[in-house]
Design goal:
By secondary structure, the protein is an alpha/beta fold. The chain contains ten helices and six strands. It has a six-stranded mixed β-sheet, sandwiched between helices.
Length: 271
Amino acid sequence: MSKKDLLISPYDSSKLSYKNIIEGNMDPWVMRFIKQTGKGINDFDMIRDGETVLLSVSGGKDSLAMALALSQRLKWLPIKYNLKALMINWIEHPIPEEYRERLYSYFSDLGIDFEITDERQFPDSFDGEFNCYLCARNRRRILFTLSQNSGCRLIAMGHHLDDLVETTIMNLFFRAEFAPMNPVQEFFEGDLYVIRPMIEVHESVTRRLAEVYDLPVIKPVCPYDQTNVRASIKPIVKDIVKLNKLAREHVFNAHDFSNCRIRRDSDDKKA
């Protein structure tokens, strides 16, 4: 199929509309991305029939790509699961109104219930301090509270294989721990689970998706975005991959993920 037969983005004529993917008009690499996301879900039994998953949406390329993959794979699965999406919008650095509208349209086209909640990035409890750890903890607190209130036990985050490798290096060099970012992470004795469906997907794939298609990517303001430790680790990983293109996969396979599973009542009854 030639490009003239495809829908062009109404926002950027140099890009294709994501609606092509929804309609099934996609290149093989897009299908491979969706299937690779599904492989991660299946490898770690992340989602089962009838379960509801809350998607943590930052507005970046990764969370938008994750939403696309999880919604589209439902079209050929023998099971059904429910998707909801939540974006935390910092009051101190609000997203433009036009992007609110584009995000609502995007998730509506994907068939996903979507909500934006306005929250304070610098609560009084910070006592004037601010760093990546405090920001992440604040975001997680809000996300977990809203997830529990909505009855969602599963929270999906858009972390990918590169995130896992970077986290492993950070923990090894700065905490003397060989600890990864787990594909499935339990909280509150199983009341909540964070799942990472794209844990086996390279970041280059989500970047390409955002470059080719008009995903409504809006990058939240972060004063530490280019100066934090993770930003410094990224070029190191790229250099290592130049030496061995499977370096990321080797780091992944070096970890023991055998205990990364969701405890379900149905499993206990079978045992």
